[in-house]
Every structure is written in C-alpha cells, then in structure tokens.
Amino acid sequence: xxxxxxxxxxxxxxxxxxxxxxxxxxxxxxADCEKYLGLLKRYKKRYKFKLYAWCLxxxxxxxxxxxxxxxxxxxxxxxxxxxxxxWYNKKYSKVGHLWQGRFKSxxxxxxxxxxxxxxxxxxxxLRAGIKLAPLEYPWSSYRSxxxxxxxxxxxxxxx
Length: 159
What we know:
single chain, 5 helices, alpha+beta, 36% helix, Alpha-Beta Plaits
C-alpha cells in the first residue's frame, strides 16, 4: 500500500515534526543536539529555507519552515533526518531506523497564527515538564528570539 502524497502549497509555512522510532530518545547528550543543529544549518544553506522556530526534545523535533519551493520540503527533511540517523547509528553502534516513519507536516497560513505556532514549539519543554522556564532550555529557538541573540539558524517571520 502506498503512502499518501503531501499537500504542498505556495506561500505558507510548515510545522514539521519528526519522532524517534517507538518514541525512543534521539538526543542522548548535548553533542547530539549540536550535531543536529549543525546539519540543519547545512541544509538551510543548501536549500535556502527560512527557519522561524525549532525545538529539539529528547525523542522528537519541531521545526517551522518557510521553503522557497514546496517540492523541496521532502528533500530537506529526508536529507536532514538521514544524515542525522547515519551519524547517530555510527556514534552509538546502532542499526536500523531512528525515526518513526515519515516526518509529519502541518500547513500554517502566513498570518498571526504563525506566532501561536512558534510559541507552541518553543514552550514544548515546559509542557513536557523538562524545564520550568523556557530560557533554561538550550535546545530551542526561544533564547535567540527572546534575548535577540543573532544566530545562524533563526529568521523572523514576515506576517
């Protein structure tokens, strides 16, 4: 049975989620998060997408992207997730799938709702009980956005 195609639209943002296979942890130490963010930087440079929010949770990721060409979304995420999986499996002497199936994508209209989605993504560590304040969590875009830190990853949405 074949998978259904994704709805790809122009002039929208995408909320992307990738979950660890069987909800397993995909980030075991800080170096893993740093590697993923380094790969994200490389794919951002290659495909020239805008990144409006990100959060790396122990067993999944959230990204809010604005891609120049919607058909590139699959290439971006397949490349990013495959590159990280290969690195992770080599580092931890693992084999097999790291991610649970395909990444999930939800369309976000380019309006003020995107700000609610950014807030949702960046507050994930609080809802999960990992941290009590978003500034305490180093693996999301919250610190960069709230403190105005310049970063190689984060863009400001034009809504």
